[in-house]
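We emphasize that the prediction below concerns an isolated chain of 229 residues; any contacts that depend on oligomerization or on bound cofactors are therefore not represented. The input was used exactly as deposited, without trimming of termini.
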Amino acid sequence: MTSLQTHPTSIFTGIVLLKKKIAEHTYHLKIQSQDFEQLQYIPGLILEIYLSNPYCHAQTEVQKYSFWDYEAIHHIADFAITFSSDSVEKEWIETVQEGDVLFFKRSSYQLFPDHTGDHYFLIGDSRALSYLYEVNRALSISKKITSLIYTEDKKEVYPDLDHSFPLNIGILDLFQPESILEYIQEYFPKDTSNTIAYIFGNYRIRSGVYTYFNDHPIFGIRNIYLNHF
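Result of the prediction step, given as a token string:
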């Protein structure tokens, strides 16, 4: 369910316990923070991480990241940091070291799993992968899940934390969103009912897939959730 909430802006801190490159443009960060308790974690929770110390740099950039997993006893969270080649985000993650202090806040925008469907379509790019992995784990095993992680290069994709690949990967031309629609037409089931779709990626792809599903009621979609990390 989509939940838009307003919270007082509180800046929290955490310690980087692990930094590991897991894909061509993705690092795995493991962060420990007592402050996670205050965020009242549920799967799908989104943080905004400051890319520099906000107390020293008033105009520091922030970037949204969803929890990949959370271990409540020791207050340790996993995040996948996916970056583009020429971004401030790339400069930041490449300089982060284990033992560093990171600053973060709860995002005002939250997109939590909607558990009311019978069938789920999980569609997204590598930036959304950790979120979709967590949604996949959070849903009951009685739910039917059809998925597409679209990418131009398999090197951009990484496994879930248990080293499995539970979601389907499609090597597609992202400059031609029609290739994604062709994949959906061929591999996604029709005549489903009470289906909930999560569609992530750039605006052109999101809007194209959204329009396609709205124009094809045979997929039985009840709710569509859109986001871009």
